[in-house]
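Narrative summary of target 7.
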Amino acid sequence: MRIFTILTLASLMIVSCKNETKQTKSDINLETTKIAESSFDWGGANLYFLLTDRFNNGDPSNDINFERTGKTAKLRGFEGGDIKGITQKIEEGYFSDLGINAIWMTPIVEQIHGGTDEGTGITYGFHGYWAKDWTVLDPNFGTKEDLHELVEAAHKKGIRIVLDAVINHTGPVTEKDPVWPEEWVRTGPKCEFRSYESTVTCTLVDNLPDIRTESNIDVDLPPQLVEKWKAEERYDDEVAELDAFFERTGHPRAPRFYIMKWLTDYITEFGIDGYRVDTVKHTEEYVWQEFKTECDYAFTKWKASHPDKVLDDNGFYLVGEVYNYKIDTGQYYDFGDRKSIILTIASTA
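Modeled conformation, tokenized:
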């Protein structure tokens, strides 16, 4: 995590000719706050990163779900942090007192229900990077109502919300979480990180199915999602939304575009301000430009539907993770057998 801070020093002295009195300290503070909000720039944002599950437990009643009660390795289970806990700290002024004007949260979509042994003991998806269903929030983190309240509370204090987008992989396979169909994911080989292909067309680690982001072949929904959505009585609505998305965009019903649709729904529904994009170098470069296009469309749509809630004229913010990047290579990442410009595609509009 890096926090970039720009300190602006300004002295204000405004004299009223009519009353020949100076503004009070509270007036000046209010004016300064308004100036800061109107001049928000992502390049100078004070971005606070937090692990949703480990930050603050605002609702102990949602601490256990899907029978995730097995004995885990040390600190590898859910600890209770949730969306309500973050909202509570926003309203208390915790972030404002630190000068924070943007919060980046780890993923909050529904995680795999089972646990997996990564070599040190059982781990559950407390960190948020093991998606099972991108269309709903994990109940350990909270509800859609909770997320609405968080975004609203943050925006009232001039704080932007950045969620975390994972397109590269699903969660691990467990007894409770079957592998997605072969046309959706690959389960090998494991990445060796020696070339472009051995970094992109592979699984990051064992038992982390890799989404076939290179595919443009139409695929059906995974049967486990169909079964799940029908049990939750929302299958028809989800399918209708997907039909409308693919009709509007003209994209093939390929795996990456399903996930882009699901992720951009959080923009149009909740008005989030940005995404931190996971595992950028492990996915083809064009995927992120496609994602940016859909994010920009969704943010423009949200602004048009909520003109009274728009904070500023900034575009939707995207920042990507490029693990093991070295600054001396400039805008390029060296895969070993080729270099790619991947550091400028996820940027502010």
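Residues 1-36, 343-349 have pLDDT under 50 and may be disordered.
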